[in-house]
Design goal:
The complex is a heterodimer of chains A (448) and B (435). Chain A is α+β, with helices and mostly antiparallel strands and 448 residues long. In chain A, 44% of the residues lie in helices and 19% in strands. In chain A, the strands form 2 sheets. Chain A has a 6-stranded mixed β-sheet with strand order 1-2-6-3-5-4, with helices on both faces. A 5-stranded mixed β-sheet of chain A has the order 7-11-8-10-9, with helices on both faces. The radius of gyration of chain A is 24 Å and the shape is globular. The termini of chain A are far apart. Chain B is of the alpha+beta class and 435 residues long. Chain B folds into 2 domains: 205 residues, 2-Layer Sandwich (Cytochrome Bc1 Complex, Chain A, domain 1), CATH 3.30.830.10; 181 residues, Metalloenzyme, LuxS/M16 peptidase-like (Cytochrome Bc1 Complex, Chain A, domain 1), CATH 3.30.830.10. Chain B is 46% helix and 19% strand. Chain B has 16 helices and 13 strands. In chain B, the strands form 3 sheets. In chain B, strands 1-2-8-3-7-6 form a 6-stranded mixed β-sheet, with helices on both faces. The termini of chain B are far apart. The chains are: A alpha+beta (448), B alpha+beta (435). At the A-B interface, helix 1, helix 3, strand 4, strand 5 and helix 5 of A face helix 1, helix 3, strand 7, helix 5 and strand 9 of B.
């Protein structure tokens, strides 16, 4: 009965999805437009195909550093001008860097899209990199790293785990970079990185909102067409060595609560031989941790009550081979080993018995509903296209996602669990809390 | 030249907004007297429903964290269903149940598709959770332990320690003085009977407002509101909170912590939701530390000196005086310098006020970007629920840009001088001890 519901859902919702329109300028800049007329707002995002997985050792984190420096001005718009102009136009802006991309965005009232294009086109080719600005901004990034990673035991555990799980894949390095690398960037490193990757033919411009696609294409032509394309060097494959046995580590840090991470090597949609396997892995992740009725919360938190918190995740959209991750915090009185055993028992069950039709339908119902809910956010819609396009899947893959998930069978879910969640492809990290007073001078100091 | 064209942009922005006209907020009372606020938002076949109770952590009494624990327990069993069945009932129709506790409020929410055969079961489950929670001993003990573990983990974070001490310092004996989740000691003391009592007192019709945003007709919304409110007991509205007593004098407190950065928070209680100084203070703060990459604090601390990744200030208006907060994190050895810089930046701003140009830039940002605040159902819902709970005028959104545009430099300066009292400022730093 629920299966029937899903089909009904799917059928009626396809009416609402608006088509993405694509145009490629002669210099190679790909422009994607998703018209969405609910509100007089427009989101503009420019995605560069470069991120931490492109970086050689010694300058890890340089894509992220360059993202910061992109706000430091050009001849036409000196440091601070970019943000000032966007702010005066009521806009919101920022940027983010991931393993496979660097993206810049502005959200504006719809008539002001040209402002965003003018500024992005300018900094795509005329960034001024100055030693003095780098010196300051490097400190900012060091502070960012301290805040996000150094003083956060769980983030540190994750960083150590990545470096353990991957042998030679660049996914082993943190997006923000290793501290010694951050401290030693030179202007020249950044300049080279900028020249190497920032070009119209290595970027995708995505616009979503209350606009007409044809107008956007014209505007993009006006601002970006004159920027010459560049020869973009082909990336070396960096294919990860096969893992041939379980890897374990214990990390001892000042902390209060123990924590476990488990990571299995799995393909992403981009690297998988048979696509359905990646979609089945995605459904597997939802069976484990999609919604309150999923297996991990239902069985480990509520049923056996071994986990205080628990989760699983898989990122289908990595450019390179991915990790299928489990994380958990024990309840009082349970050890990390107890949790490891409990998690592996759930995995073995999924490898042995296919999930019920009911359970599969529940996962799909959530995916279908989510595909409607996510349309409430313009930003997210643009982002989905940006990721798919930038990791090499192509935006059409993002649009097919719901259909593909709908085709996954219970047997396929069992099959991928059995094929990929295997001991010899597993890495495990335990966080073993050390007393937190260790490095601190005791006491509370008052001053008036 | 640029100023002129930007001025045109402002005018244009305002004109186009008036032409746009906001989706009107429909307001009515159910036959039982329940207060309802509804905005029809067609376009996507979905609806958001939020029931807000005057049952925030300010109502914790002697058991800090009980409001938050009560709201977490609602979904763990209701009517004839246990926690698993409730989760399944929501998941199988793609509905999302959510809840939260803040200082003034606790709310429960439902996001669902509007297709009738999906919405109806979701609503049925939602109603049961609200009106017939089971509060079993087993679930109570489990969730309580979970909360305790979560609170213990928070102690790993210097930012958490700073926040906890900051609220304590600025609020003293007031019910806003503790963090919403309570602390380990207080949670340990809570008994199941306390939870049941808290629920019976505060989760009642006269203590609630209902906000609905989505693809429904008004008559559908009326139907939903009737059913929801009918199932709640009538009860009584929570009593007026006591007024905030300001700290007696400025104070600075450092807490040692094994971290590479020192987290700094500074501020004092200032602003209520219905405050007559609301707009001057709000626009003024936008210039001081509220406008992200272009604020004065951001500029002084990050752009000019590279001292921190984030540096900000904000007002959090509440029923009674909510905090004015300035914050940053910096490596331990720089913390004294950063605190001083933060104080000088504030003192300068209070003494001199903003420049005309700074004010104009802020107004352009706030009015020109106003549509961005309400461009989807989720943001609209947040506004509607806020307007409803704090009984703000129904034209709050319509009049917002106009009120922002009319604020003057002198008003900002006067409001900051009168309200942001630096001689009462509380400063908390948590991190490695700086020599």
């Amino acid at each position: 009965m629920i299966i029937r519901l899903c089909i009904v859902l799917f059928y009626s919702f396809s009416v609402y999805a608006t088509e993405v329109q694509e145009r490629v300028l002669t210099n190679g800049l790909k422009v994607l437009v998703k018209e969405e007329h609910r509100s007089p707002v427009v989101v503009s995002q420019i995605w560069y195909k470069v991120g931490s997985s492109y970086e050689p050792l010694g300058i890890t984190g340089i894509s992220h550093m360059l993202e910061h420096m992109m706000f430091k001005g050009t001849n036409k718009y000196p440091a601070g001008e970019f943000s000032k102009i966007i702010a005066e136009n009521g806009g919101r802006e920022n940027a983010f860097t991931g393993r496979d991309y660097t993206a810049y965005f502005q959200t504006l009232e719809k008539t002001r899209l040209a402002i965003s294009f003018a500024l992005e086109a300018d900094r795509m080719q005329h960034l001024k990199l100055i030693a003095e600005e780098l010196e300051k901004e490097l400190q900012v990034v060091m502070e960012e790293r301290r805040m996000r990673t150094e003083d956060n035991p769980r983030a540190k555990l994750q960083e150590y785990l990545m470096a353990l799980a991957y042998s030679n894949s660049p996914y082993r390095n943190p997006v923000i970079g290793w501290p010694a690398d951050i401290e030693n960037y030179q202007v020249d490193d950044l300049l080279q990185w900028y020249q190497q990757w920032y070009a119209p033919n290595n970027a995708t411009l995505i616009v979503a909102g209350d606009v007409q696609a044809e107008d956007v294409f014209k505007l993009a032509e006006h601002y970006f067409a004159a920027i010459p394309g560049k020869a973009i060097k082909t990336l070396k494959p960096h294919t990860e060595m096969e893992q041939v046995g379980v890897r374990r580590m214990t990390v001892k840090l000042p902390a209060k609560v123990p924590y476990i991470l488990m990571a299995y090597k799995v393909p992403s949609l981009n690297t998988v031989a048979a696509e359905w396997e990646a979609y089945a892995l995605d459904v597997l992740a939802a069976v484990l941790d999609g919604g309150g009725s999923a297996r991990l919360p239902a069985r480990l938190q509520r049923g056996q009550q071994v986990a205080s918190s628990v989760g699983a995740g898989y990122d289908i959209s990595g450019r390179l081979e991915e990790l299928f991750l489990f994380e958990a915090t024990p309840v009082n009185g349970q050890s990390l080993l107890d949790l490891e055993i409990a998690l592996k028992t759930e995995i073995r069950t999924l490898q042995r018995d296919a999930i019920s039709a009911h359970e599969l339908a529940r996962v799909k119902a959530q995916v279908m509903a989510q595909s409607v809910y996510e349309q409430d956010s313009l930003f997210y819609q643009a982002m989905k296209l940006g990721i798919a396009e930038t990791v090499g899947l192509g935006w059409k893959k993002a649009e097919q996602y719901r259909d593909k998930i709908n085709q996954v069978t219970a047997e396929q879910v069992r099959w991928v669990a059995d094929k990929y969640l295997i001991e010899s492809h597993l890495s495990i990290a335990y966080l073993e809390p050390q007393t937190m007073a260790a490095n601190a001078k005791p006491g509370v100091h008052h001053a008036h | 030249m640029r100023i002129k064209s930007s001025l045109i942009a402002i005018l244009f922005g305002i004109v186009s907004m008036q032409a746009l006209a906001f989706p009107p907020i429909k307001h009515w009372q159910t036959t039982q007297g329940g207060l309802v606020y509804f905005v029809a938002s067609p376009g996507l076949p979905m609806v958001d429903i939020r029931l807000v109770f005057d049952a925030g952590s300010a109502r914790d009494g002697r058991l800090d964290g009980i409001a938050s624990l009560t709201s977490s327990l609602l979904e763990t069993g209701a009517g004839q269903w246990n926690a698993d069945q409730i989760a399944q009932r929501f998941d199988e129709v793609g509905a999302k149940y959510s809840y939260a506790t803040h200082r003034d409020t606790s709310w429960v929410g439902l996001r669902s598709l509007t297709q009738a055969d999906l919405l109806e079961p979701a609503l049925g489950t939602f109603q049961k959770i609200l009106s017939q929670p089971q509060f079993t001993r087993e679930q109570f003990l489990r969730v309580k332990d979970q909360k305790l573990m979560g609170l213990k983990q928070q102690l790993e974070k210097p930012g958490y320690i700073a926040k906890k001490n900051f609220y304590q310092a600025i609020y003293g004996e007031h019910p806003y003085a503790h963090l919403v989740a309570g602390d380990i000691e207080s949670i340990k003391q809570i008994q199941l009977t306390d939870i049941k009592q808290f629920y019976q007192q505060y989760y009642v019709r006269n203590n609630a407002i209902l906000a609905i945003v989505g693809d429904l007709t008004e008559s559908q919304a009326r139907q939903i509101a009737e059913t929801l409110f009918k199932q709640l007991k009538r009860g009584e509205k929570a009593k007026q909170l006591s007024q905030v007593v300001l700290p007696k004098k400025a104070n600075k407190k450092h807490i040692d912590f094994p971290s590479t950065q020192t987290h700094i928070l500074a501020g004092l209680p200032v602003l209520t939701r219905n405050d007559e100084d609301y707009f001057p203070l709000y626009v003024g703060n936008h210039i001081l530390g509220g406008s992200g990459l272009v604020s004065l604090l951001f500029n002084e601390i990050r752009e000019k000196r590279g001292l921190a990744y984030s540096a900000y200030s904000y007002f959090s208006p509440l029923e009674e005086s909510g905090p004015f907060t300035m914050g940053l994190q910096t490596q331990n050895k720089q913390s004294d310098m950063a605190i001083e810089l933060m104080q000088t930046t504030l003192a300068d701003f209070i003494n001199k006020g903003p420049t005309q140009a700074q004010l104009m830039a802020a107004q352009k940002n706030l009015t020109g970007g106003f549509v961005l605040r309400i461009d989807n159902n989720k943001k609209l819902l947040n506004y509607i629920a806020m307007i409803a709970f704090y009984q703000l005028p129904l034209d709050y959104l319509d009049s917002f840009p106009g009120k922002v545009s009319r604020v003057t430099v002198d008003e900002i300066k006067a409001a900051f001088q009168r309200r942001v009292k630096t001689d009462l400022m509380q400063i908390i730093s948590v991190g490695g001890y700086s020599e």
